[in-house]
Amino acid sequence: MGFSIMFMRLGGSEILDADRAGLAAFLASEGLVSSGGSGELLRVSDGAPLAFDGYWTDLHLDDVSQEEPVSGGIDHATLSPDEVSFIFHLCVAGKMLVINPQGDPLYIVPDGTHERDDVPDPDDVAWVQTPEEFAHALGVSFGAFASFRDRVVEGSATDAAE
What we know:
By secondary structure, the protein is an alpha+beta fold.
């Protein structure tokens, strides 16, 4: 179970290329490389997949050497503080915004990566300056839901053990 988001660079209704140099520098600073075709991010040190709080993530990013515009996403975001911070800084480095298919808001623009005219629906945008604002724009309610879900799952495990 998770929260799905996409990140890309837009210019009105057109998909533009992300800042490839910014993404490459960010990935290098984080000790990560893209696995190429799958877009999975791997640690340079040991080839292990990117993880947050000890859990594997399905965050993916197009290879910065591909010809098409680079974009990415995550299909099952947990919205943990580490994950949110990583996505925020990744988007800033690549000059990408976040598309939130769950809506309200549909677009989240981190730290000045886009101008008002760059977004297809400027009335459905949250403009955020920090990872904390980013998390709030994605919905504090999902975090509450995730906590509730974890308590239910843990309770089920406890009930099954009895």
